Design the sequence.
């Protein structure tokens, strides 16, 4: 999603007045509508009497100078200044958000090509000529349930950079429903599940580059972008990190190649368990292992323990009881890890004791004891908690222990704990 602006005329759904103005979009700052006049004529009379006030509209419709129909949802702000919108649809004039019904949403994500796991473009040649070959990847489609299916599609296009032309491979995710579904259900259901799976593989939050909506009963007569029979959806994306960052398949926790024949089943299991996993993922993506200040580490440490509690609740299938102490939760989750990863927590009682003592110190203001973790030891413990969470996520995909051991061995948390252990053994020797 790149920055752009569209000039046109804007009106309320039940209004006759069309007001000139421009809508501006950027992924970081969202959607902004600047009008030459207010949408409601009656506001002109009170502009100077009562001064500026806030306005809120469920829907604002517009038509750009090039003929595209536009709908803005959740519009709020000052009627004589700037209005902000929660969601923009380019290609349809819709009367309400209830009319956002689709059978297909197609999304391009950052990092998706790396998640596919291989580059279909290859070249060979000499100084005088070069041959470039594009091998269309095998189709991938998974039936998630009776309503939804998900597939990964590919396209190849020329790109020009610094006067040189080259082939560019792009992948996208298509979520298909057997009936028309509200857009919110796509975003909060199977699309959100796949998005978080991709982020887990990449290791950080990722943006969507483009969201295309198809198969809507409302847009059959609409003029979409450049005359196409689809609509584009735009919304603010508060995702840290630089846009356009490149990813390599080898940098990911897992990808389609390393999942192998288990990829369809892994995506099915993940989608089925996502409703229970999303609180754990919310805490997990709040963790930043790069912090080196105790104040920042302490916050991430508490968030990690909240994620641990939620994960144990999901894996055990029961609400927390009196017997489910933090010690028991940590021990159970570590037992579910591959043996290679379990070895990094030895002596286990010392690791668990330090985590429990530190939580009591931070949450209950207990006096710090000899087991309380600070500085490097707290940083090490946070790495261990992240590794436990990563292992728990892989278990929800029903991977075998060999695959889990391979994937966890690639993480920086595993490598960091392994270096700590080697250093401790060297010092002890």
Sequence:
């Amino acid at each position: 999603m790149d920055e752009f602006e569209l000039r046109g005329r804007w009106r309320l759904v039940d209004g006759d007045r069309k007001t000139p103005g421009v809508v501006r979009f950027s992924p970081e700052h969202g959607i902004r509508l600047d009008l030459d006049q207010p949408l409601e004529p009656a506001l002109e009379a009170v502009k100077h009497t009562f001064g500026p006030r806030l306005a809120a509209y469920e829907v604002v419709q517009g038509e750009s100078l090039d003929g595209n129909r536009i709908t803005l949802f959740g519009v709020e702000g000052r009627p004589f200044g700037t209005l902000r919108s929660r969601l923009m649809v380019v290609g349809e004039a819709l009367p309400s958000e209830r009319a956002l019904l689709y059978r297909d949403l197609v999304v391009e994500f950052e990092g998706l090509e790396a998640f596919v796991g291989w580059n279909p473009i290859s070249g060979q040649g000499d100084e005088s000529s070069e041959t470039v070959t594009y091998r269309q990847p095998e189709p991938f489609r998974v039936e998630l349930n009776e309503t939804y299916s998900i597939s990964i599609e590919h396209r190849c296009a020329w790109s020009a950079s610094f006067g040189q032309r080259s082939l560019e491979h792009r992948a996208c995710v298509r979520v298909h429903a057997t009936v028309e579904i509200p857009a919110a259900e796509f975003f909060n259901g199977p699309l959100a599940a796949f998005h978080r799976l991709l982020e887990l593989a990449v290791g950080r939050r990722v943006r969507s580059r483009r969201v295309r909506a198809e198969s809507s009963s409302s847009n059959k007569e609409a003029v979409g972008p450049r005359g196409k029979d689809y609509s584009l959806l735009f919304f603010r994306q508060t995702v840290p990190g630089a846009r356009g960052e490149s990813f390599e398949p080898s940098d990911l926790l897992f990808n389609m190649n390393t999942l192998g024949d288990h990829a369809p089943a892994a995506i099915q299991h993940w989608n089925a368990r996502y409703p229970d996993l999303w609180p754990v993922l919310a805490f997990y993506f709040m963790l930043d292992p790069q912090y080196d200040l105790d104040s920042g580490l302490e916050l991430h440490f508490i968030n990690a323990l909240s994620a641990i509690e939620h994960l144990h609740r999901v894996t055990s299938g029961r609400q927390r009881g009196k017997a489910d102490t933090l010690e028991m939760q940590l021990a159970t989750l570590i037992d579910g890890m591959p043996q290679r990863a379990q070895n990094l927590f030895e002596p286990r009682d010392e690791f668990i004791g330090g985590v429990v003592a530190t939580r009591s110190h931070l949450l209950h203001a207990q006096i710090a004891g000899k087991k309380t973790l600070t500085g490097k030891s707290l940083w090490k413990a946070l790495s261990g908690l992240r590794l436990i969470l990563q292992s728990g996520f892989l278990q929800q995909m029903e991977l075998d222990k060999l695959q889990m051991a391979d994937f966890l061995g690639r993480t920086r948390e595993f490598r960091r704990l392994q270096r700590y252990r080697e250093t401790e053994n060297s010092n002890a020797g």
